[in-house]
Amino acid sequence: MPGMTASQKYIQIRGVIDTDALFVTLDGEKMSKRQFQNRVTYYGKQADIKGVRCSFHTFRHTFAKLSVKNGAGIFELQQILGHTSMEMIRVYVNLFSDDVMDKHRTFSPLVNIKVRM
């Protein structure tokens, strides 16, 4: 399985199932939000993760942070996370504003402006 993403490995192990859901129960049924939340918490305890709350909320928060750090736009992030308003996206962007500013420096048009004195 070298060269495969974690998602590809998971799908290969899980097998092909007649559902659009990524995460399924042992019966091949779509996993409920509560079941997924419980799994995240359970596996966090199994992995003996310390110093951070291992929860569905933390999972989404980390996803949003890494997405912003990798240059995700606010509109794409809003769609992916399923937020109907931009308010929560603004919270994520403001939380990681230093990361956003660092990323901005790489694509800002001002980078290529030369000043002559």
Automatic annotation (TrEMBL):
Coiled coil: none
Domain Tyr recombinase: 1-105
GO terms classed as biological process: DNA integration; DNA recombination
Keyword Ligase belongs to the record: no
Pfam families listed in its UniProt record: Phage_integrase
Record InterPro entries: DNA_brk_join_enz, Integrase-like_cat_sf, Integrase_catalytic
GO terms of molecular function: DNA binding
Keyword line: DNA recombination
The protein's name in its UniProt record: Tyrosine recombinase XerD
